From TrEMBL:
Its job: F(1)F(0) ATP synthase produces ATP from ADP in the presence of a proton or sodium gradient. F-type ATPases consist of two structural domains, F(1) containing the extramembraneous catalytic core and F(0) containing the membrane proton channel, linked together by a central stalk and a peripheral stalk. During catalysis, ATP synthesis in the catalytic domain of F(1) is coupled via a rotary mechanism of the central stalk subunits to proton translocation.
Isomerase keyword on record: no
Principal location listed in the UniProt entry: membrane
Gene Ontology molecular function, alphabetical: proton transmembrane transporter activity
GO biological process: proton motive force-driven ATP synthesis
Transmembrane segments: 31-54
Keywords for the protein's UniProt record, in alphabetical order: ATP synthesis, CF(0), Chloroplast, Hydrogen ion transport, Ion transport, Membrane, Plastid, Thylakoid, Transmembrane, Transmembrane helix, Transport
Family: Belongs to the ATPase B chain family.
Source organism: Georgeantha hexandra
Record GO cellular component, one term: proton-transporting ATP synthase complex
Membrane topology term: Single-pass membrane protein
Organism placement in taxonomy: Eukaryota, Viridiplantae, Streptophyta, Embryophyta, Tracheophyta
Protein name: ATP synthase CF0 subunit I
Compartments where located: Membrane
């Protein structure tokens, strides 16, 4: 770092060819830079003045602050109203609590008894529903068992019939059924 600084210092001491060279005087350089920047700003920003921009910025900031204050005031009023409502409600609740204390616990005991009775009734109904459900489930299970037994019996009968039937017996059964059907036609 020291070498770089020394090289710039040496550049400042070189004799320049004309008027171009490095200026190592910081105060003079800053003053020149500020003059150039202000000149460019004035030239390119003819219609815009710094005080106008600053005034607009300050006015916008002032408006935001005022609107924030207004909003805060409205919120404060709203919370004051809510606090007042809460106080009124608290007062009513305290009065109701005092009324319950003065009336005693008879209403609570009555409600407790009603609740117990309602619970007993509900339990009885649940017991009744449970018994009915059990009965229906038993009936359904018995019907399913009956159907299975019937299906097995039919399958067993068909199996034994198929094993016992031969073609001659089969033809004899068909002829007998045809004869029965023939007699039924004559009766009509």
């Amino acid at each position: 770092m020291k070498n770089v600084t020394h090289s710039f210092v040496f550049l400042g001491h070189w004799p320049s060819a004309g008027s171009f060279g490095f200026n190592t005087d910081i105060l003079a350089t800053n003053l020149i830079n500020l003059t150039v920047v202000i000149g460019v700003l004035i030239f390119f920003g003819k219609g815009v003045c710094a005080s106008c921009l600053l005034k607009d910025l300050l006015d916008n900031r002032k408006q935001r602050i005022l609107s924030t204050i207004r909003n805060s005031e409205e919120l404060r009023r709203g919370t004051d109203e809510q606090v007042e409502k809460a106080r009124i409600r608290l007062h009513k609740v305290k009065l109701e609590a005092d009324e319950y204390r003065t009336n005693g616990y008879s209403e609570i005991e009555q409600e407790k008894e009603n609740l117990i009775n309602a619970t007993c009734n509900s339990l009885e109904q649940f017991e009744k529903y449970k018994n009915e459900t059990l009965y229906f489930e038993q009936q359904r299970a018995m019907n399913q068992v009956r159907q299975r037994v019937f299906q097995q019996a039919v399958q067993g009968a068909l199996g034994s019939l198929n094993s016992c039937l031969n073609t001659e017996l089969h033809f004899r059964t068909i002829r007998a059924n045809i004869a029965i059907l023939g007699t039924m036609e004559w009766k009509k």
